[in-house]
């Protein structure tokens, strides 16, 4: 078996398993801060397996879009993962400007998620969809500016090449920290984690993602929750690739081990955030999301001033 297929299988394994493990590490980290035992590492896997055996309860006002939307969101999340380099400079699918395809696939998932939320006619879910659209409008420009900065710094146009070649550029030491922090904020925004959102809240008026899936149950709820874990894995993988010094084509086992370790480290950081600070008030959330844009703008300015030319 060639190195490409080995890395492809490793990429698939990480994609399928890491959403459960990241949630488990976050919950265990929060439990340690609270001085309690807490749930096991694989509790989210058992929760989703239990949901798959439950019969869904559907609102009488819902159309087929409601049930179909959960699976569209899941398929879009899985499709986006195929283009994202989780294990260093490698992705199973890669072509010039593939990051645009990733952005539009994630945008489609966001659109279908909001439509599914509004389909049941609940004012709470409509409110969550409006918040999702607002925060997405702040997060997406930061993501595109980040991708443009990577392209300008490396001269590459594919996701894997941009992140893989960045460490060989003279800008790496200058821009790696602001880009990693920006990706962390985008992870918290897109995966609905504290301080942007609280996945454990039960107050509809303060929810964003959770309120949009209040009417989902059974397999549809499992699909939504797993898709959220995939999105968190996507951003954690981008941070890991940004920091991973190893080339998976030259040292595949070591590169995979380092990437997985870095992703788990990101989960620990997210867990510490959720243990040490509360969810931000809604007016402050937009400023926090904008902080990712300012961090990327600093990196873009550094690349431009030192010879990148955006």
Task: Provide structural commentary.
70% of the residues lie in helices and 0% in strands. It is mainly alpha-helical and 310 residues long. It has one domain. The mean pLDDT is 93.
Basic shape: globular
Give the biggest beta sheet.
Answer: none
Number of helices: 11
Give the rounded overall mean pLDDT: 93
Supply Rg.
Answer: 19 Å
Helix content: over 70%
How many domains make up the coordinates? Answer: 1
SS-based structural class? mainly alpha
Low-confidence stretches: none
Q: How many beta-strand elements?
A: 0
Distance between the termini: 41 Å
Strand content: under 5%
Query: H/E series, N to C?
Result: HHHHHHHHHHH
Question: How would the blueprint of this fold be written?
Answer:
Elements: H1 3-33, H2 43-52, H3 64-81, H4 98-119, H5 123-154, H6 159-165, H7 172-190, H8 209-212, H9 218-243, H10 252-276, H11 282-305
Helix pairs in contact: 1-9, 1-10, 2-9, 3-4, 3-9, 4-5, 5-6, 5-7, 5-11, 7-9, 7-11, 9-10
Descriptive labels:
mainly alpha
Summarize the structure.
The protein has 11 helices and no strands. The chain is an all-alpha fold and 310 residues long.
């Amino acid at each position: 078996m060639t190195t490409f297929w080995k890395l492809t299988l490793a990429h698939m394994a990480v994609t399928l398993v890491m959403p459960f493990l990241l949630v488990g590490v976050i919950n265990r980290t929060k439990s340690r801060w609270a001085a309690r035992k807490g749930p096991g590492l694989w509790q989210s896997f058992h929760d989703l397996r239990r949901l798959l055996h439950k019969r869904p309860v559907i609102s009488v006002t819902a159309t087929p879009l409601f049930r179909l939307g959960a699976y569209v969101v899941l398929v879009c999340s899985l499709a986006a993962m195929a283009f994202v380099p989780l294990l260093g400079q490698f992705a199973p699918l890669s072509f010039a400007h593939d990051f645009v395809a990733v952005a539009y696939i994630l945008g489609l998932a966001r659109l279908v998620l909001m439509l599914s939320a509004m389909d049941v006619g609940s004012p709470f879910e409509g409110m969550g969809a409006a918040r999702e659209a607002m925060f997405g409008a702040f997060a997406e420009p930061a993501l595109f500016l980040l991708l443009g900065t990577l392209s300008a710094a490396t001269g590459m146009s594919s996701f894997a090449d941009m992140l893989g070649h960045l460490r060989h550029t003279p800008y790496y030491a200058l821009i790696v920290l602001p880009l990693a922090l920006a990706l962390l904020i985008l992870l918290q925004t897109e995966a609905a984690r504290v301080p942007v959102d609280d996945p454990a809240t039960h107050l509809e008026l303060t929810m964003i993602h959770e309120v949009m899936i209040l009417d989902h149950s059974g397999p549809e709820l499992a699909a939504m929750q797993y898709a959220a874990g995939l999105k968190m894995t996507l951003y954690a993988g981008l941070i890991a690739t940004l920091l991973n010094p190893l080339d998976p084509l030259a040292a595949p086992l070591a590169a995979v081990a380092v990437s997985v370790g870095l992703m788990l480290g990101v989960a620990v950081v997210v867990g510490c955030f959720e243990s040490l600070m509360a969810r931000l008030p809604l007016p402050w959330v937009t400023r926090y999301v904008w902080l990712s844009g300012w961090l990327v703008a600093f990196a873009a300015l550094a690349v431009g001033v030192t010879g990148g030319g955006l």
